[in-house]
Amino acid sequence: MLSVTGLTKTFPGARALDGVDFAANPGEVHALIGENGAGKSTLIKVLTGVYQPDAGEIVHDGSPVRFQTPLEAQHAGISTIYQEVNLVPLMSVARNLFLGREPRNRLGLIDFRRMHGEADEALRSLGLRVDVKRPLRTLGVGAQQMVALARAVSVDARVVIMDEPTSSLEPREVRTLFGVIRMLKERDIAVVYVSHRLDELYEVCDKVTVLRDGKLVHTGPIAELDRLRLVSLMLGREMGEVSGEGVTKFTGDHHAGREPVLSAQELTVRHTLHQVSVEVRPGEVVGLGGLLGSGRSETAKAIAGALPPDSGKVVVAGSAVRTGSTPAAIRAGISLLPEDRKAEGIVPGLSVRENIALAALPGLSRFGLVDDAKVDKIVDTFMTRLRIKASGPHQKVGELSGGNQQKVLLARWLAMQPKVLLLDEPTRGIDVGAKAEVQGLIDELADEGLGVLLISSDMEELIEGSDRVVVLKDGAVIAELTGDDVTEDRLMHAIAAAPESDAELKTVAPDAAAIVAPGSAPAPVSGPAPVDKTSSGGERDHD
Amino acid sequence: EDDNSDKSSSAGEKDSGQVVATPGADDKTCDITQFGGEKIDLKSATVGFSQSEKEANPFRIAETASIKAEAEERGIKLLSANAQTQFSKQISDVQDLIAKGADLLVIAPLNSDGWGPVLRSAAAKKIPIVTIDRKINATACKDYVSFIGSDFIEQGKRAADQMIEATGGKGEVAILLGAAGNNVTTERTKGFKDQIAAKAPELKVVFEQTGEFAREKGQQVTEQLIQSNPGINGIYAENDEMGLGAVNALKGAGKKAGAVKIVTVDGTRNAVQGIVDGWISGVVESNPRFGPLAFQTLDAFTKGEKVAQDIVIQDGAYTPENAKADLGKAF
Amino acid sequence: MTHTHTERPARATGSGPSPGKGASGKDTDEAPLGASRAERLSALAQQHGALVTLLLVAIGASIGFDTFLTGDNLENMAVSSAFLAIVALGMTFVIITGGIDLSVGSLFALGGVLGAWGSQYGTLVALLLPLAVCGLIGLVNGLLIAKARLAPFIVTLAAMLAARGILLAITDEGSNTYLVDEKSFFASLGQEKLLGIGVPVWITVALFVVGAVMLRRSRFGQYVYAVGGNEDAAALMGAPVARTKIAVYTLSGLCAGLAGALNAAWLVSGVTILGTGMELEAISAVVIGGTLLTGGFGFISGSLVGVLLLKVIQNVINQIGSLDSAYQQVVSGAFLAVVVIAQTWLGRRRRMM
Amino acid sequence: MTELALKGAPVDRARLLRLLQDYGVYAGVAVLLLVNIALTPHFLSTENFRTQAVQVAPVLIVALGMALAIGSEGVDLSVGSVMALSTSLLSLYLGYGPWVALIVAMLGGAVIGLANGSLIAFIGVQPIVATLALMVAGRGIALVLLPQLKDVRDPGMSSLGSGDLFGIPYLVLIAAALALAVGFTVKRTTFGRQLLAIGDSRPAAQLAGLPVRRVLILVYVIAGVLAAIAGVLATARLQASDPTSLGTLMELSAITAVVVGGTPLSGGRIRIGGTVAGAVLIQLLTATLIKHDLPPSWTQIAQAVVIVLAVYAARERGKR
Ligand SMILES: Nc1ncnc2c1ncn2[C@@H]1O[C@H](COP(=O)(O)OP(=O)(O)OP(=O)(O)O)[C@@H](O)[C@H]1O
Ligand SMILES: Nc1ncnc2c1ncn2[C@@H]1O[C@H](COP(=O)(O)OP(=O)(O)OP(=O)(O)O)[C@@H](O)[C@H]1O
Ligand SMILES: [Mg+2]
Ligand SMILES: [Mg+2]
């Protein structure tokens, strides 16, 4: 269907792809894995015309092709979800879903009624209930990712490529996604799937290709490889060295102090948070649990001053912090690793070095002049400690792979030596090796007496990493799990047990509800609706 | 140090008021029956005045002040608007004046062409228009009543005469043009060049660059000029400001007063002082004090008397001979 | 295949408010990104913030000056707004894509001169020549911006100089003004009235309707928003980014050229000194109308309101009668600031939700 | 062997392009100099270079402030009006001595900058409109303060305008010192880093706890003060305060100098050296056109072409 041979792509200072061969076949789900910066996204971008290869051949449908733009690739039947949500935030959900293939009436004008109806159905069949007329940016990253998914599968594609589609998804959405993938497979569509969550691969993938430093290191049926072998191929280390990697690196218990280092009291933000209270003691890792859009990110932002609360208090180490001001929160010792790293985290045009030093600058300066020696030292420390992979401290952060960008951000906050660290999806998009490092780091930091608030859609990570889990639903605290209660079962239970609120957006569609339970056998897919319906949307494209 | 330029605008000085150049009988005239309007009493009428540029250079300041002073003296209600050098705005301005109930209009046009909409509105209400300083390209006594102002071509010619005299009719001269696309610029250039070609073929115009009627620009252009054309004998500046800029440039380059002959047009106090100081060789006057003549014309016209269609004023000239004595007449 | 999907959202939701509540094709005209009621209200406030201000100023003016609300005055304002409005129409498209077009003032003047010159060969030439030349310059702008990836500000600044240069070149350095025959059909385009309202006003209204439909209801319009909202994402979603950009700059050039030609018909001459500062006027009108300069958000109708607002302010300053020209500037600057603050404030509240 | 070639080629080409991007504007200046030396009579003289340097000084100073504004993903259209305001204030307060007048003029610039910055930082008005409002109002205020051109006959001012130190005009020395200071600020100070981060990604800077508002306000205050200084210098040179025409279209010249010098309008990057070269390039171009006595139509078209060429050479590459 779609195959490449000898693909090479060089960026200034980095060879992202080096003679890679790869083939996606109809009805086959092909996993593409590798460390951060291995070249997965680059391969996908070269395949779909975002980048032009320096060498190599792309064959699609038996004839060599070279797409000049993503549009050409789409016309050739290749539909892609790129890493990091790539939609237009100011446009409505429906407009995003249908951009370029809007249903039109006889006059050639867009038929919004139909578009909204169809968009609503497409999302609903994926278990997402949102007002399709609201701007996309009002949705959380996870929900946006689902919209991107809906967009990708709703065209009549022959190849569907997904670059880390699950990085912000909850188990429930992941199940829905898998249902969709199986359906694509049944319809003889070739699927390329990139993920750092190895367990997922075994569930849906047939074949796996492993990249390392831009080179192909393995390709073959996934069933032939066990997890350990996969990891060792990715990392390029011996099996013995890596045994245990890929499992969370949390040790579990920490010795928490008694007085809370952070105490958020009754934070309320209109329409979003309702009297949310959270306490974190020094040396404690507190998890924030909940479904997509339950208000976890908002809680973290409100604490860090990035979202001004209408009422409520934030107290750090006994003294109240002015709310609604990031500098005040930071001065008080609160650091937030934001969820949307591309839009709110990195400063893409600045170097790795400057990004790491950014928040800590005032402390690294004298009389307003930057002390470069100090900066170099800190940057050096963290680049080694977090194993940030860059051509050097002066490379632009925008050019790093997603996982390495995340590490740079972590370094930025660790350089601040905060009292409380709010981590919103800290391991999102990070490879197994780095993930274990980050998790180990969280543990280490907690042991050093730091208070950590952890938000993660990786259920396992949340449960293993937290001493305590505060469960949110519809922007309110509905439960708190402590001690032995911190288990996946309990968490899911707490979420499911809470009385259904009347909030407009979070009602779970009946068919999707069944999917929520974790560990159960692959749930029935939420009907063949999405693909079916939207293929009709695809036909409409031509009128 | 005492600086007298800021208290210069003295419209009251009648002795420096405008004098009609050729009250000749052969000139075409216009009266209210010919024009097709009705007699009105000027005293009780509302006069609209549209100024083209900000009152920020001596010429415009003196012009507006003169109109306002005269209206006040005659006890006439005056509405005024300023187009801030934007032609579209001037068109709307005049229409606004008409809509506000102006019975008579005095317009200082920014441009000669493009007055169609205004003339149509005015014609519909039979509002007499007097244009001052610049002419409107339209039919006198039909679209408008009279034009009062200087003859810019003539000004250019007289400047050429002064230049010829100062340089002895030989050598190379440069022109500092006014703003591009402006008919004052065009006509002052044409008059100057025609006269030079006719009277002093040995005097060559070797350089023409715009100084946009501003002192700073005049200075900058002259600075470039005296380096690329070190042998230049004279500079004709189409207004005083640019001429004063040229003086600055020459001073800065270490030239002596009078080494390069400068002739300018307008007659501001600073320029005339420049003659006294020896830096400027001659200034052709362009008298901005239109108030008395404009209202005199309107008065006569509204009473039913005949007025000339083209009231060309007699501009004076400042030369080294009269500069000191006439300094008080400058504006 | 489609029959399985005829289910409408209203029916699908048994309990809870339907996500499609209040859905009616109209939301796109009223609140472009419409959603919850509060959000919609504030969107309305934002879009109509300029309109509300306009009404307030107009009401104040009609109370303060009895010559404000007269047929003549309104008609004058309408006709003289028409030309700026057409320019602002093109500018709206450009700004929504996140760009800017500084060349419109010069193109307006050039369009007028070409129209006046062309009118001696008939109305068709008088209209097509400015459209062709200004459209071509717009196209070049678009190509340089979309293909060579140069900053719109600089490219159109250069075009502003170049177009003025061309204008000077064809008018003998500005000394030559081409006149339009007052009896020609072309001149009547600028001067005739239809039902008591000037033809330019009708043309403007028609263009705005077409423009609004194009922006709101055509696929091209969606691309315009997408390119301005997030260019990279738009490209990855398969939007023809370069083509869209080229199209909007061409459109802007066409609008400026047409406005210039109509203006020449109105003035019955190709005035050479027109258009200076017009780009800033058009930009302020668009921004006052609620369009974000950062792109991705805006409306056509707002730009019209913005133009009218500027015109009314100018008229009010003239109504006051004898304000010194320096104070006039202070007043209009202050007013611009107030309007933009009000509008930004409304817009920000909306964005925070 | 082939592999080596493959490895080397694209990187080298990229490096070459980057070099061109970084030094394109200097190359442009060099080309113009060579053209002039070859074609323009009397070009190679100290007097001539002095003239060009003195003329470019005010533009450059304004451009320095503009570079900061542009680096913060903004722009300052009010600079020309600030020059007018500063010349008015200077004239009005010259009676109290040149230093007092100078300080008042700079304060005037700072106040306008503060107003710009507050509109942008606190209310969130888009820079181009915020500064447009002050561009209109600023010149109005200048004219209210000083309704017409006024001669400045202060010995201090006149020596500032035409004096020199070791043969280098004061104006040029001041401009050079300011360029160094601004360059240093961008490169070495916390403020500079924060400014670039804000210009590159405002949300990220906000979440990283940078004092976004303070930095933005400071940027526009600096831009205002620099424009005021330029106004004072222009006044000293002209020996007159001319609030009507001083600084008209200065915003466009300054923006052009900055962008031609390789600072992208999208913010996040500032090149002071490039800005200096950009200003010089524009100055040389103007001088060339004037010296060769080309008609205005030609001048405008030639300027357009050179601007596009220069920006084309310095354009941001590698973005897809
Ligand atoms: N635009 C660019 N400019 C320069 N270097 C780049 C660019 N894009 C990617 N790279 C480099 O290419 C290499 C591969 O990056 P890529 O994004 O393909 O990694 P990845 O496998 O997708 O990693 P991740 O799992 O973190 O997403 C990295 O070293 C990265 O720094
Ligand atoms: N599945 C969804 N259905 C409806 N709205 C959603 C959904 N997901 C997110 N949202 C919207 O996104 C907003 C932001 O949610 P927020 O980011 O706080 O959630 P979260 O708990 O952090 O989840 P995540 O970040 O994983 O999306 C919510 O106010 C909600 O309106
Ligand atoms: Mg990737
Ligand atoms: Mg979240």
Tell me briefly what this model is.
The complex is a heterotetramer of chains A (543), B (331), C (353) and D (320). With 543 residues, chain A is an alpha/beta fold.
Description:
The complex is a heterotetramer of chains A (about 550), B (about 325), C (about 350) and D (about 325). Chain A has about 550 residues and is an alpha/beta fold. Chain A is built from 20 helices and 22 strands. In chain A, the strands form 5 sheets. Chain A has a 6-stranded mixed β-sheet with strand order 6-7-8-3-9-10, sandwiched between helices. A 6-stranded mixed β-sheet of chain A has the order 16-19-20-13-21-22, sandwiched between helices. In chain A, strands 2-1-4-5 form a 4-stranded antiparallel β-sheet, covered by helices on one side. In chain B, strand 4, helix 4 and strand 5 form a beta-alpha-beta unit. With about 325 residues, chain B is of the alpha/beta class. Chain C has a two-stranded antiparallel sheet with strand order 1-2. With about 325 residues, chain D is mainly α. Chain D is built from 13 helices and 4 strands. Chain D has a two-stranded antiparallel sheet. In chain D, helix 1 (about 1-40) crosses helix 12 and helix 2 crosses helix 11. Chains in contact: A-C, A-D, B-C, B-D, C-D. One magnesium ion binds near residues 40, 83, 163 and 401 of chain A. One adenosine-5'-triphosphate binds near residues 34, 403 and 431 of chain A. Chain A: It comes from Streptomyces niveus (Streptomyces spheroides). Chain A: Keywords: ATP-binding, Nucleotide-binding, Repeat, Transport. Chain A: InterPro entries: AAA+_ATPase (IPR003593), ABC_carbohydrate_import_ATPase (IPR050107), ABC_transporter-like_ATP-bd (IPR003439), ABC_transporter-like_CS (IPR017871), P-loop_NTPase (IPR027417). Chain A: This is Sugar ABC transporter ATP-binding protein.
Bound molecules: adenosine-5'-triphosphate, magnesium ion
Number of helices of chain D: 13
Oligomer: heterotetramer
Strand residue content of chain D = under 5%
What are the salient characteristics of this protein?
heterotetramer; B: 331 residues; alpha/beta; six-stranded parallel beta sheet; six-stranded mixed beta sheet; 14 strands; 39% helix; disordered N terminus; C: 353 residues; mainly alpha; two-stranded antiparallel sheet; 1% strand; disordered C terminus; binds adenosine-5'-triphosphate; binds magnesium ion; transmembrane helix (chain D); ABC transporter permease (chain D); cell membrane (chain D)
